[in-house]
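hey so i finally got around to running the thing on that chain from the lab meeting. sorry it took forever, my laptop kept dying and i had to restart like 3 times. anyway pasting the input first so we r on the same page abt which one it is
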Amino acid sequence: MLLIEQQQYPIGSVPKYNFSLSRNGGFGVPQGFVETCLCSLNGLYDSRKRGEVVGKPDLLTKEDAFDFSLEALSLEAIPLHAVKEEVTVVAVDVSSMRVGETEQGIIIAVRGAIVWNNRCSYRFLRLGPFLFHVTEENKSHVFSALSKCDEKFSVRIPAPDSFHLQTGIATVLERWLQLNLCMTNSGSLILLDGSLTSGTVDAPEEVVGMLLRTARERENSVLAFSKFSRLRLNGRPAIDVVNKSTPPCMVKIAGLSEPHGGALTLMGDVYVARLSENAVSFRLDIDKQLPQQQAVNAVEKLLGNDLFYQGYPETLRLAHIYSTFTANEVVGMQHYLTRERGVTLLSRPNLRRILFGPFGKGPEG
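ok and heres what got predicted. didnt touch it at all, straight out
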């Protein structure tokens, strides 16, 4: 049996773009990745007679995993000017969701999306969704197999605890896509979602270092945008430091120390960027091995080659849109599990509603 809790997902249509799906840069998911995915699902056959329980879907949200507290600094805005020099802009994003829980573990879905922008002509490629059934018994084997699935890049993510299994699976796919983009592109701007801080579950220092080193060897510039940031300056959100400056501009947050006693490592220089009028500000991390003038020039090339919505690059926005799961896709994955894996769908009782009636609000615990 497959027990799910009814939950509404966005069904609205995605804006239409005249994208060409050809010339995808030679991307294809490693055969080992697919084999590991299918092998993990084989466990459903072995235990379906006992009744499988799948809980409510739970979308993964990306945020900074730490706080900074800074003393007063002398911050000066860096004015930016759009540079029309032609350059390819590439963005990658990965979404994951917990399709549900079983008696043994959880079923996780991951999907990646890559968007190429050349002269404001956009192309995209989606990979997935891939379904994994991860348990305490098989998680070490799953993560070990995933780390060996690509001969070019070994993305070694140690098997995390149960709370971070979803993050770990998504990280393997995301880092593999990022590394391949850095290798297959030359002289491009590569946009990532998140920060360039290593030492967290989803950002081992070895992997982030290899990513930035590969990008530099191919003369690519990596720009990482964070939609959420807990960076604070004198008790206030640091992203407010550019509010009084005329956009487009950015401010370098200098003098940052390694957070959590050095457990985390800042692999990039941290900026606060406001890239268009009447727009919000974002944390922007740029490889600290690049000279500051080269980092500024990379952002100015981005201004001259991409569109912006609320100060956010359109290429990265589209990568997020095309990686996100919709309600129809959730139904499709549930149908696959019932038809191909022989499980039965049931509605999960909402314990909060049973106990508290109309006062039982909030996520099911």
